[in-house]
Write a structure and sequence with these properties.
The structure is a single chain. The protein is α/β, with parallel strands linked by helices. The protein has 2 domains: 198 residues, 3-Layer(aba) Sandwich (Rossmann fold); 130 residues, no CATH class. The chain is built from 17 helices and 10 strands. The protein has a 10-stranded mixed beta sheet with strand order 1-2-10-9-8-7-6-3-4-5, with helices on both faces. α1 crosses α9. The longest helix has 31 residues. The protein is globular and about 65 Å long.
Length: 347
C-alpha cells in the first residue's frame, strides 16, 4: 500500500506495484468468475479479466443484443457463455453487473445459488445500500465486495488496451471467509484499475449518484444548454455557440486539464481568459453549491433511490426515456454537435 498526500490529506491507495497482477492471479487461481450482465461494465471488465489470464465466464439472457455482443467478443456458448442461472451455478465469484433495475429483477435467481463461501461482487453500491427498497440481502455466509471503476466500461477497456488504467474504489461489505479484501484487490487489479482507493458501499453510492446527477452528466448537460441558448439569443450562429460551449471544452481544454491540472490551464491562457475565468469561478461555485447540497441530501436520504426504482419499474419507462433522449438529440444544440463532429479532421 502507498500513502499519498492529496492536498495535505494523507490517503492510502493500492497500486499495481504493491499488488501486482501475478499476486492477483495466484489469489484467484482456483476461482471461476461469472460476469452477470453484458451491458455497461460487463464487456470491459470481463474482457480485461480474460486477457489478464483469469478464469472467466459470462452469464446473460439468451437471444438479446447483449448475448449477440458477447458472442461477437469471442465468448463461446456452452463453454464461456451461459444463461444467467447456469453461470451463477458454475461460478465461485459472481460479478453482479446488471443494471440496478436488472439486479432487483434477477435477485431471486442469484440468491438461491449463493452457496456458502461464494463471493458476490458489485461495481455499484445501490442494491446493497438501499436493500430495504431493492430486496438485495445476501446470505451471511458469502463474501460481499465492491470494485467500482471511475468511468464507463468502454473507457476501462480502451485504457487497458493502451496499457493504462482507470482508477477504482473498492469496499468489503461482508467478509465471511476472511479473504474478502484480498479478493476485492485481486479483482480490482484484474479488471484494469490504475490504482484502488478504499471506501464503503454507502459512500460509493452517495458519491456516484451525486456525481452522475451533478458534474459528470446532469450539471454538465444543463450548463451546455444554458450557455448555448444565451449565445444563440444574442445572435451568435449555431456553429459559434456550439464550438464555444462544447467543442473547445471537450476537444481542447479538458484533455489538458486531465494531464496538467486546472492551475496549469489558467496559467497557459491569455491574461483576458485568466482574469475572467478566475473572477467568475467563485460566482458559479456560490450559485451551484446550494443545488449540490440539495442533491446530496436527496441521495443520502434514499428519496432519490426510491424515485429511480419507482420510475424504472414502470412498464412505459423505456418508451418515455426514448422520447426524452429524442428531444435532446433533435435539439438545435445537439443537431449542431452532430454536424460539427462530422467536420472534425480525419487523421
Amino acid at each position: 500500500m502507498a500513502t499519498i498526500n492529496f492536498g495535505g490529506i494523507q490517503e492510502t491507495v493500492i497500486t499495481r506495484e504493491e499488488f501486482p497482477l501475478d499476486k492477483a492471479l495466484k489469489t484467484l487461481q482456483k476461482e471461476t468468475i461469472a460476469i452477470i450482465g453484458y451491458g455497461v461494465q460487463g464487456p470491459g471488465q470481463s474482457l480485461n479479466l480474460r486477457d489478464n489470464g483469469f478464469n472467466v465466464i459470462v452469464g446473460q439472457r439468451k437471444g438479446g443484443k447483449s448475448w449477440d455482443k458477447a458472442l461477437h467478443d469471442g465468448w463461446i456458448e456452452g463453454e464461456t457463455l451461459f444463461d444467467i442461472e447456469e453461470a451463477v451455478q458454475k461460478a465461485s465469484i459472481i460479478q453482479y453487473l446488471l443494471s440496478d433495475a436488472g439486479q432487483i429483477e434477477a435477485w431471486p435467481t442469484i440468491k438461491k445459488h449463493l452457496a456458502k463461501g461464494k463471493t458476490l461482487y458489485f461495481s455499484h453500491g445501490f442494491g446493497i445500500t438501499f436493500n430495504d427498497k431493492t430486496g438485495i440481502v445476501p446470505p451471511a455466509d458469502v463474501d460481499v465486495i465492491l470494485v467500482a471503476p471511475k468511468g464507463s466500461g468502454t473507457s476501462l477497456r480502451r485504457l487497458f488496451l493502451k496499457g493504462e488504467g482507470l482508477n477504482s474504489s473498492f469496499a468489503v461489505y461482508q467478509d465471511a471467509t476472511g479473504t474478502a479484501r484480498e479478493k476485492a484487490l485481486s479483482l480490482g487489479i484484474g479488471v484494469g484499475s490504475g490504482y484502488l482507493f478504499e471506501t464503503d458501499f454507502k459512500k460509493e453510492v452517495f458519491s456516484d449518484l451525486t456525481g452522475e446527477r451533478g458534474i459528470l452528466m446532469g450539471a454538465l448537460a444543463g450548463l451546455f444548454e444554458a450557455q448555448y441558448n444565451v449565445l444563440r439569443k444574442y445572435g451568435h450562429s449555431p456553429s459559434e455557440a456550439f464550438n464555444e460551449t462544447v467543442e473547445e471544452l471537450t476537444q481542447s481544454l479538458m484533455p489538458l486539464v486531465a494531464e496538467n491540472g486546472m492551475d496549469w490551464m489558467f496559467a497557459n491562457t491569455s491574461v483576458t481568459a485568466q482574469r475572467g475565468a478566475l473572477d467568475w469561478k467563485g460566482k458559479f461555485r456560490e450559485a451551484t453549491t446550494p443545488v449540490f447540497e440539495t442533491l446530496y441530501e436527496e441521495v443520502s436520504s434514499g428519496r432519490e433511490a426510491a424515485r429511480v426504482i419507482a420510475e424504472g419499474s414502470k412498464k412505459d419507462y423505456r418508451e418515455k426515456l426514448n422520447l426524452e433522449l429524442k428531444e435532446i438529440r433533435e435539439s438545435e444544440l445537439w443537431q449542431t454537435g452532430a454536424e460539427v463532429r462530422k467536420l472534425r479532421p480525419k487523421m
